[in-house]
Amino acid sequence: MSxxxxxxxxxIIPVLTLLAGTxxxxxxxxxxxxxxxxxxxxxxxELIGTEQRRSRQTRADxxxxxxxxxxxxxxxxxxxxxVKDAQARADRLAARSGFAPxxxxxxxxxxxxxxxxxxxxxxxxxxxxxxxxxDVQAVxxxxxxxxxxxxxxxxxRVISTSAVRCVGNTLILQGVVYSPPFRITAVGDPARLRxxxxxxxxxTVYKRYVREYGLGYAVRGTGQAxxxxxxxxxxxxxxxxxxxxxxx
Length: 248
Prior knowledge:
Layout lengths: L7 H24 L12 H34 L3 H17 L4 E3 L1 E7 L20 H13 L4 E4 L2 E3 L6 E3 L2 E4 L2 E3 L3 E6 L2 H10 L1 H13 L2 E6 L3 E3 L21
Antiparallel strand pairs: 1-10, 2-8, 2-9, 3-4, 3-8, 5-6, 6-7
Helix pairs in contact: 2-3, 4-5
C-alpha cells in the first residue's frame, strides 16, 4: 500500500527489551543459581494477571477512599457554606467532566484484528493484520471532534486525561488489559459522530487496511447508551492558586 500506517514494531521493541530485562532480573533473583523449569518459571501471562489483580484492588481502594472523602465533604458542607458551595459546583461539573454516569443516544465503534487465516498479499507484514494504539486513538479523537459528550472504551469511562496504550494486539487502559475486538461507545448526536468518523483522515487510513487485509470495523447506533462514571485517578499537572479574599 502507498499509505504508511505506523512503525509499530519499532515502538514495541524497546518495550519488549525492557520487559525481557525485568524478567531476567526476576528470574535470576528467584533461581539463585538453580533451574526455573519447574515451579519457578515466570510467565508473562502470570505477570499480566498479577498486575491486573493489583490494578483492580488499587481501583477499589481508590473508589472507597473517594466515597469517604465525598461523605466527609458533605458532612462539612452542612456547617460550612463555602464547602457546601464548592460541593454544589463540583456536582454540576461532574457530568461534563466524566465523574457522573451519562445517558443518551450515540454510536458504538468496534475494531478487530484480521482473521488468522486469509489470502493476503505476499508482502503482508504481521503488523498490518492487528489493531494498533493509533487506530483506537484515531476513533477516539474523531468522536471527541464530533461533539461526543462522553465516551467509554470497553467497560471503562474515559476522560480527557485517559491514555490509550497497546502492547502487541492488546489494549491497556488504566491498568486493565483487553483483547480485541475493541469497542468504543460515545454519547452524542449520532449523525455528527458518524460524520466525524467519515471525515477523519486517520480513520480513513484504517479503513483502507479494512478493505485490504480484512481488519474489523463496524459502526452502529446505540439507542440510549448509559456510560458509567469515571472511577480512575486524576493526576493534576497544572493548578492555579485562587486569591483568598480574606487576605490583604
